[in-house]
C-alpha cells in the first residue's frame, strides 16, 4: 500500500500568501517595530482564524516563541546599551563636578534612576569612630533613617563596609544573613525598605563607603543590576576621592594665601612699628614734651588722644572730645599688660614695671586692628620713657627743693635776721611764695614705701605750690594753706590709695613767716605721734582736730578755740537769750550728773534743770552725755572757770 503524501497547503486562487506566511511576515514586522510582547501572540490567533491547518499553526507558534526570544535579547542589548550610556554620562557628570556635596548627591540620584528603585542612599566610613554613617539620601522620608550610623559588620551596609563585597537582600526584614540591631531595624522599618542592594565604594584597596539602592517592596536584584551599581560605585569612588583631594588642595591654597597675606601684613606692621618707634624715640630724645608726643601718636593712629599721669591729672589732649578714660579701664590695662577697649575708648596703662606712671586713651577708633593696637601699646612705652625723663628732671629739682626745705625747718637758722632775705629768692625760683602763710604736714608710712611716698608727696607739693622732702625719717610737706587739718586728711587718703598702704599725716600751722616753720614742724610731729598713739593710723589731722589732746600737746594753747569748738552753740545761746545753760551744765557735772543736787546748787526746781539740759541736748546733739563727749564738755567747763577772773562763775 503506497504511503500517503502530505497534502500541500492550498494556495489562494488569486496567488496571495497563505495564513502561515502572513503570520510570519507579521512577526517580522512586529520585531522591526519593537512592538509590545502581547502583540506577538496575536499572530497565531490571526492564522487560526484565517483557516491555517494544525501543522501551519504549530510552525507559527514556534516562530512566535523565536520572535519573542529575539525581542528579549534585543531588549537586553538595548537596556545594557542604555545603562552603559548612562554610566558613561554619569562618569562625565561626576568628572565635571568639583564640590564634594554635589558629587555625592549626583551619585545617589543617578543610582536611583539607573536601578529604578524607590530610594538610593550612600554612607561614608568614619575611621575615627570605627563605623559608617549616612551621608546622602535620595527618595528618603524618614529622619531617623537619614541619621543612621552602622557599626562595622552590622546590618547589610555594615557588612558591605567591613568585607568590601556587594550584598543584596530581597526582603531585609526577614533576612537572617545579616546582624540586625534595634537602631538599624527601627530606621529601616520607619523608611519601609524591603529589597536592599549595597555595593562598596573603593579607592584602591581601601573602602570609603557604601552605595545602596532599595525598594519598599520585596525585590530580587539581578546580577546585571548588581554589576551596574558596582560600576557606578567604582566611578563614584574615584569622583569622591578626586573631589576630596580638590577640596584639600583648595583649602591648602586658601591657607597658603592667608599665610602669605599674614606674613605680608606682619612684615608691613613690623616696618611701620619700627619707623614709629624711631620717630617717637627721636622726639623724646630731642626734648619734646608730652603734648608733642601726644600729637604725634594721634596723627599716627588717626584718633583723639588723652594722656594722664598716675594721679589722673591730664597732661595732654589732642582731638579728643570724650571725657577722661575710666579708672577701671586703666586698672584692667595694668592687670592685663596690654591695651583694652572700655566704654568705646582704647586705654593703655603707662608702666615702668611695677610702677604706673600714667595712662593714654585713644578715642574715635572702635575697630582698632591688631597692628594699630600694637602701635598704641608701643606708644605707651615711649610715653613711659618721656615721663621717666621728666621724673629725672623733677628729682633733680626736688633735691634743690629738699635743700631749701632743710633750711626752712632748721631751728638754728630761725633766729638769723638775714634768713628771710636769703630764702625768699630761692623759694621764688621754685614757684614757692614764702610771703603766704605756710602749714607744715608730716607724713608717715611703712619704711619700705618711704621712697615712693617722697616721690608722690613731691608731686603733690608742686601742684600745691609748696615743698616736700624727707626729714628725720619722715616726709615733710609745706603748703600755702590756712586749713592744715582738712588738707592733712585729704593727703592721707589720696597718698594711701596711690601707695596701696596706710599713710598718716600730722599737720600744724599756718606760720605767718618762715621763722615760725620750725615750731610748726615740731607741732606737726607731735600731732603725728598723737594720731599713731590714738590708733588713727592712715588718717590725717591737725592738733586742733584732736580735741583736748591737741590742747594738751599744742605749744600755743588755743584754749578759746577749743572751748568754742566744744561749747560754742551753748555759749552763743546764753549770750543771745541771757540764759544759764553753761552754768547749769557745770552744776550738773559737779553734782555727778545728779539732778537733785544740781537743782540745789542752782536754787531752781528740778524741772528747770531738766528743761535746760533738754535745750543743751538740742544744741550739742543727742550724744552730748556720752563718756567721750562728756569728758570734752567737762574739760571745756574747767577751762572756762580757769580763764575767768577769780570770784566769777563759769557763765
Description:
The protein is of the alpha+beta class and 651 residues long. It has 22 helices and 16 strands. The protein has helices spanning 19-33, 37-40, 42-49, 54-96, 100-115, 143-146, 155-163, 182-191, 223-285, 290-301, 327-336, 370-409, 419-429, 450-464, 484-499, 517-533, 548-553, 559-577, 581-590, 595-602, 606-620, 627-643, and strands spanning 119-126, 131-138, 149-151, 167-169, 195-203, 206-215, 304-309, 314-318, 340-342, 345-352, 355-363, 438-444, 467-471, 474-479, 504-511, 540-542. The strands form three sheets. A six-stranded antiparallel sheet has the order 3-2-1-6-5-4. A hairpin with a 2-residue loop joins strand 5 and strand 6. Helix 4 packs parallel to helix 9 (223-285). The chain starts with 18 loop residues before the first helix and ends in an 8-residue tail after the last helix. The model is unreliable at 1-16, 553-557 and 645-651 (pLDDT under 50).
Helical stretch tally? 22
Reported for the largest beta sheet, the result is: 6 strands, antiparallel
Low-confidence stretches: 1-16, 553-557, 645-651
Please tell me the overall pLDDT.
78
Measure the end-to-end span. 189 Å
Labels describing this entry:
22 helices, disordered C terminus, single chain, 651 residues, alpha+beta
Amino acid at each position: 500500500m503506497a504511503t500517503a503524501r502530505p497534502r500541500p497547503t492550498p494556495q489562494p486562487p488569486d496567488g496571495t500568501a497563505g495564513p502561515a506566511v502572513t503570520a510570519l511576515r507579521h512577526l517580522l514586522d512586529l520585531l522591526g517595530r519593537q512592538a509590545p510582547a502581547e502583540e506577538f501572540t496575536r499572530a497565531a490567533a490571526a492564522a487560526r482564524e484565517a483557516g491555517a491547518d494544525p501543522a501551519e499553526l504549530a510552525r507559527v507558534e514556534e516562530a512566535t516563541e523565536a520572535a519573542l526570544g529575539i525581542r528579549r535579547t534585543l531588549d537586553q542589548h538595548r537596556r545594557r546599551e542604555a545603562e552603559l550610556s548612562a554610566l558613561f554620562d554619569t562618569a562625565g557628570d561626576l568628572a565635571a563636578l568639583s564640590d564634594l556635596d554635589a558629587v555625592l548627591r549626583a551619585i545617589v540620584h543617578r543610582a536611583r534612576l539607573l536601578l529604578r528603585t524607590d530610594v538610593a542612599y550612600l554612607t561614608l566610613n568614619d575611621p575615627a569612630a570605627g563605623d559608617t554613617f549616612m551621608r546622602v539620601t535620595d527618595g528618603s522620608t524618614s529622619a531617623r533613617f537619614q541619621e543612621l550610623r552602622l557599626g562595622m559588620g552590622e546590618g547589610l551596609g555594615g557588612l558591605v563596609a567591613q568585607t568590601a563585597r556587594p550584598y543584596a537582600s530581597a526582603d531585609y526584614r526577614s533576612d537572617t544573613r545579616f546582624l540586625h540591631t534595634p537602631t538599624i531595624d527601627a530606621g529601616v522599618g520607619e523608611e519601609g525598605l524591603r529589597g536592599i542592594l549595597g555595593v562598596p565604594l573603593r579607592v584602591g584597596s581601601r573602602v570609603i563607603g557604601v552605595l545602596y539602592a532599595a525598594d519598599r517592596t520585596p525585590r530580587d536584584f539581578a546580577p546585571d543590576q548588581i554589576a551596574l551599581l558596582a560600576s557606578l560605585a567604582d566611578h563614584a569612588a574615584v569622583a569622591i576621592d578626586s573631589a576630596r583631594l580638590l577640596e584639600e588642595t583648595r583649602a591648602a591654597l586658601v591657607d597658603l594665601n592667608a599665610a602669605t597675606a599674614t606674613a605680608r601684613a606682619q612684615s608691613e606692621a613690623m616696618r611701620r612699628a619700627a619707623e614709629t618707634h624711631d620717630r617717637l624715640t627721636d622726639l623724646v630724645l630731642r626734648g619734646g614734651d608730652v603734648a608733642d608726643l601726644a600729637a604725634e601718636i594721634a596723627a599716627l593712629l588717626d584718633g583723639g588722644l588723652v594722656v594722664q599721669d598716675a594721679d589722673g591729672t591730664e597732661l595732654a589732649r589732642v582731638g579728643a572730645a570724650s571725657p577722661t578714660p575710666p579708672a577701671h579701664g586703666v586698672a584692667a590695662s595694668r592687670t592685663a599688660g596690654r591695651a583694652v577697649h572700655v566704654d568705646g575708648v582704647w586705654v593703655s596703662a603707662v608702666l615702668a614695671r611695677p610702677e604706673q606712671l600714667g595712662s593714654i586713651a585713644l578715642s574715635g577708633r572702635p575697630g582698632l586692628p591688631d597692628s594699630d593696637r600694637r602701635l598704641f601699646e608701643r606708644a605707651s612705652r615711649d610715653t613711659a620713657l618721656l615721663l621717666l625723663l621728666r621724673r629725672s628732671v623733677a628729682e633733680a629739682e626736688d633735691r634743690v627743693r629738699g635743700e631749701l626745705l632743710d633750711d626752712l625747718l632748721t631751728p638754728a637758722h630761725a633766729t638769723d635776721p638775714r634768713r628771710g632775705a636769703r630764702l625768699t629768692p630761692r623759694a621764688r625760683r621754685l614757684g614757692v611764695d614764702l610771703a603766704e602763710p605756710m602749714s607744715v604736714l608730716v607724713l608717715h608710712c611703712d619704711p619700705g614705701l618711704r621712697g615712693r611716698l617722697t616721690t608722690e608727696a613731691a608731686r603733690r607739693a608742686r601742684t600745691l605750690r609748696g615743698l616736700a622732702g624727707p626729714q628725720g625719717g619722715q616726709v615733710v610737706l609745706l603748703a600755702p594753706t590756712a586749713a592744715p587739718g582738712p588738707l592733712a586728711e585729704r593727703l592721707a587718703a589720696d597718698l594711701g590709695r596711690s601707695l596701696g598702704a596706710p599713710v598718716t599725716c600730722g599737720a600744724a600751722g599756718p606760720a605767718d613767716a618762715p621763722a615760725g616753720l620750725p615750731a610748726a614742724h615740731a607741732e606737726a610731729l607731735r600731732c603725728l605721734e598723737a594720731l599713731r598713739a590714738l590708733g588713727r593710723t592712715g588718717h590725717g589731722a591737725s592738733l586742733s582736730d584732736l580735741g583736748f589732746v591737741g590742747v594738751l600737746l599744742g605749744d600755743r594753747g588755743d584754749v578759746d578755740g577749743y572751748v568754742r569748738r566744744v561749747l560754742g552753740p551753748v555759749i552763743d545761746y546764753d549770750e543771745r537769750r541771757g540764759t544759764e545753760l553753761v552754768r547749769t551744765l557745770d552744776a550738773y557735772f559737779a553734782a555727778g550728773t545728779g539732778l537733785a543736787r544740781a537743782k540745789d546748787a542752782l536754787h531752781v526746781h528740778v524741772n528747770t534743770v531738766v528743761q535746760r539740759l533738754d535745750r543743751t541736748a538740742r544744741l550739742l546733739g543727742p550724744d552730748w552725755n556720752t563718756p567721750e563727749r562728756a569728758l570734752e564738755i567737762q574739760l571745756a567747763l574747767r577751762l572756762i572757770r580757769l580763764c575767768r577772773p577769780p570770784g566769777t562763775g563759769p557763765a
